[in-house]
Amino acid sequence: LMKIRPRRFLEIFPVNKGGDRPWAQGTVKAHALPHGRATEQAKAQVSSPHVSKGCSSTQLSYGTLTGPCPWVVGVVSVTSRTASPNRDTPQRRRRSSHLIGGICRRTATRALLIALTLSLDMASARGQSDTKGTQNLRVAELAKEVHTKGWIVYSAQTEKGDWDLFLMRPDGSSRKNISNTATFNEAAARLSPDGRRILYYRLPVGAQVDNNNYGTHELVIANSDGTNPVVYGNEYPWASWGPGGDKIACLSKRGIQIVDLSTRKVVLDMDRKGIFEQLFWSPDGKWLIGTANGLGQYWTIARMNVATGELNLVSDPQCYNCTADWFPDSRHVIYSNGIPCTNEWAQLWMANGEGKQRSMIYGETGRHIYGGAVSPDGKYVLFTRSQRDLGKVDNSVTTMALMRLQDAPTIGGESEILRKLHPHTKDGPVLDLSFGWEPHWTYAQIGGKK
Predict the structure, then answer these.
(1) E strands within 86-215?
(2) pTM
(3) What pLDDT score does 55 carry?
């Protein structure tokens, strides 16, 4: 900027955006103008703006730009200033008199030179800016599309440091704490098939929430809005809803037990055959899925026939796999596929129940993708993105996201190696849902709202 004190000046403003959020704002409300040893603290009013592509939705209020705008050029009017103790000299005043049409000649010239110098860069970057602006609009469209599609329950850490359960709309709006206890951590909530109840596990408030042992603590079943919690205790590890919501499947070292909730009695005992954690019952009641040992060198995803006890391999046996769940059709499985097959970062995959037609849904270098969950209509996918491998869950580096299944496979970020391995990705929009872990989805009405 110029070492003169015009009342108006031409400036090119980069817009500071909040990550990739389409509703991010850039502000020029307080802009510092170097002026020798004095400083003008300008409250800037943008007029006659020329904006970059992607800013067609830009709205101008007092000094504020909204919309996916990489940059904007406009005239700024200085309405107030504060100067340093060094007063202006006659020489400075003479320098400030060379104005053309209300704009300082030197200011205009240098600003135009800046614009000229940057024009080639802008031209080359325009494609990137346009692409990012388009992607932001696609994310906004996705958020609008899923806004009224039921509710998502998830676990997250509060300001007090404990873990509670929360509900939110699928676009991340209308968040509310539904457990709000000070003496326990609540984690890993699962909505019943009819969406009226949730089961989850509670831990002592000082215990670490861990992806690999949360299911060994006390089971609690409550209404889906968190009311009327009933503590079942720690005799029901790794519980999963049955298809009618009247039974649960549990997994212990002794085996797999099917428990009638009305009597709390075991109605069926089965050999677990190597399944050791993260057990889930299929919507049609015919199958169980879980993380298993004994079907390869690494952890695998195994499917069990409830009627016969027969076990088959679903995932790639050449790498670690975990956090499986069912598609609504009970014929396909979503799971996380990890090292050494995935360049050190776990990815989200799917396969049919026979372990065929394996394919990637989402991957991103720099993030471990876990906890995949499919929407009740099978059209969308929820998952957790973690900067650290899970085990122990760190809320500060663990976020949730949502995408359309039709956009699979999608790759996040630059992920150069991953893109070489999967050159035909669709790169669909991915909606960031902020901090949280193990999300689960229902289209049912909760608290009087669908």
Answers:
(1) 99-100, 103-104, 151-157, 163-168, 176-177, 184-191, 197-204
(2) 0.72
(3) 33
